[in-house]
Specification:
By secondary structure, the protein is mainly β. It contains 2 helices and 17 strands. The N terminus is likely disordered.
Length: 253
């Protein structure tokens, strides 16, 4: 279902006359929610259903990405958290015929000059938020990469999360490598390369939600990580299977 949805979105963009790339404006932040260090990545885009922002957040202590969605009104940003798989299907995959209501979302933020401040509120709990921009990229124009851009994808397994390192080559902006990060050890345990001297720069640039360019599924008890690539048509995917013996993800033949 996810693959059908992605292909449909991509084809609609082509038919509408939009370029294969050119929809990514992403900013990464580091800071804290209350006493807890966090990393936050936000993509601004007109996603439909009234949403203008999607994002990925992880607490440094847990390293588990949390999908976010919300709206910006001037410099004010309201963000909601995706609670579970059912919520992900409802908001990200299926969408809604009417705009989503972000009233009551736990994140209330104000965008300043390279900073995000505000609060996280849920029930009786309230924590201040202080974040500083550390990197980002924008391919809606000529293509600009600012700093070391690591995109925390939504996909994760029980042990690992995945981050894409984005760069600008002579060709264009794309994911150069994907990092496999052990959540318990908080350490990169594998680096998968996508761009070499003979390769085009196409990795991680297919979908409107950048955090969805890497997806996870399980087949016959094995974790499979699917990486999306653009190719001038509907794009394609490469599957990586976890090899328990080697303790690494390998390209599926």
């Amino acid at each position: 279902m996810v693959r059908q949805f992605v292909s449909a979105v991509f084809c609609l963009l082509l038919l509408s006359g939009k370029a294969i790339a050119g929809w990514y404006h992403v900013e990464n932040y580091e800071g804290s929610i209350g006493p807890n260090p966090v990393h936050l990545s936000l993509q601004t885009y007109t996603f439909g259903n009234g949403l203008t922002i999607q994002g990925s957040l992880f607490y440094d202590a847990k390293q588990s990405p949390i999908a976010l969605y919300g709206k910006a009104n001037g410099t004010s940003i309201a963000l909601c958290e995706i609670a579970d798989d059912k919520d992900f299907q409802r908001v990200i995959v299926q969408g809604s015929k009417t705009p989503f209501d972000v009233t009551g979302c736990p994140f209330a933020l104000e965008l300043g000059d390279g900073v995000l401040t505000g609060s996280w509120n849920k029930g009786a709990d309230k924590f201040p938020i202080n974040l500083k921009k550390v990197a980002g990229f924008d391919d809606t124009g000529e293509g600009v990469v600012d700093g070391n851009v690591e995109i925390p994808f939504w996909a994760q397994t029980a042990t690992d999360r995945f981050a894409g390192v984005y760069t600008k080559t002579d060709d264009q902006i794309c994911m150069k490598t994907m990092l496999v990060i052990n959540k318990k050890r908080k350490k990169v345990v594998q680096t998968i390369k996508f761009v070499s001297e003979d390769d085009y720069c196409n990795g991680g640039m297919l979908m409107t939600s950048i955090y969805w360019n890497v997806q996870k599924r399980t087949e016959r008890g094995k974790d499979i990580i699917s990486v999306s690539f653009r190719d001038g048509r509907a794009g394609y995917e490469e599957d990586y299977v976890f090899d328990r013996k080697a303790r690494k993800y390998r390209l599926k033949k």
